[in-house]
Amino acid sequence: MFYEWKPYVSVAERKRNAERELAKSQKKGATMTPVVIASRAIVTTFWGKAWCHNIEHYSDYANRLPRGRSYVRNRAVLDLRIADGVVKALVMGSRHYQVEVKVAAVSQAHWNAVCKDCSGAIDSLIELLQGRFAKHVMERICRPGVGLFPIPKDINFACSCPDWASMCKHVAAVLYGIGARLDEQPHLLFTLRNVDEKDLIAKAGKGLPLSSQSPKTGRVLKDTELADVFGIEMAGITEPLTKKKAARKIKQKPTTKSAKKNAPKARKPRVKA
User: Fold this and answer.
1) How far apart are CA 272 and CA 236, in angstroms?
2) What pLDDT digit, counting tens, does each position of 4-22 carry?
C-alpha cells in the first residue's frame, strides 16, 4: 500500500527514545535546549498561559493541538530556540524531525498603539515580565488581532516529517513548547515579535488607561481573567485547579460564665480618709 500506518509506539517507549536521542546528540558535542515539563501542567505563569490560550483560541489549530500536548509532556521536544521572528526545534517522533515556526513582526504602528494604551500602568520591567499588572493592561496586551500575541495568518510553520497535514503533531508540540519556554524566559515573546519590551514601561502622566478603574499594584492575574479575554474554557493546558483550602478560623478565648467567674477581679484604688 502507498499509505501505511506506522507501528504503534507507547508513551513510555517514545519517552525513552527521546532521552536516548538527546543523550546521543549531547555526546557528539551538540548543545541542546530541551523543553522539560516538571509538572503535569505545561505552563504555570501568565505569559506561558496567555500564549497557549491564544493558540487554542483558533479553530484552525484545534484538531492537532491535543497530540502536541502529549508530545511536549513526554519530552519529545529535544531542542527549541527562539530568535527574532523564528523558532527552530528538533522533535522526536518515529525519528527526529526538524521544525521551524516563523512569526511575523509586529508593525511599528501596531506596537505604538499597544504601548500608548498601556502607558502609565506598568511600573517596571520586573513587574511586566512577572505578569503583575492591572486587568485592563492584560486585556490590551492579549487582545486577539491587535495585542501582542500572533493570529494564525502571522504564523507559518514547516516540519520535515511526512505528515500531509498543514499542522502536524510535531509543530503542535513546538507551539506548546514555546509556551513552556515563555514560563522560564518571558522576554523571548518580545524577541519573537521583534519589539522591545522596555517600550511598555510607563512614564508617569503619559497615556490614558483603558478602564476607569485604577490599577491595583502588585496584582497577579488569574486564570479566569485570561479565559475572559480569549473567550475560551480553561482546559487542556493545565490540570484543573484544586479547591482553595478553607480559611482558618481564628481561635478566640472562651467567654463562658465559668471563665468570667474565675477571671481575677480588678482591685479598687484605696481612698485615704
Assistant:
1) 82
2) 545 555 556 666 666 666 6
Residue-wise pLDDT for 79-137, tens only, equals 999 999 999 999 988 888 999 999 999 999 999 999 999 888 888 899 899 988 888 88
Three-class DSSP category at 234: coil
Length of the chain: 273
What is the gyration radius of the CA atoms in the chain, in angstroms?
26
Distance CA 253, CA 259 (A): 9
- Which residue matches cell numbers 480553561? 234
pTM for the full model? 0.71
The packing angle between helices 46-56 and 135-142, to 10°, is 40
Rounded to the nearest 5°, which phi and psi values hold at 79? -155, 135
Map residue 169 onto helix, strand or coil: helix
* Residue 24: its H or E element: helix 11-27
3-state helix, strand, coil split of the chain in percent (to 5) is 40, 10, 50
In angstroms, the CA 179 to CA 46 distance is 10
261, amino acid identity: K
Q: How far apart are CA 30 and CA 78, in angstroms?
A: 11
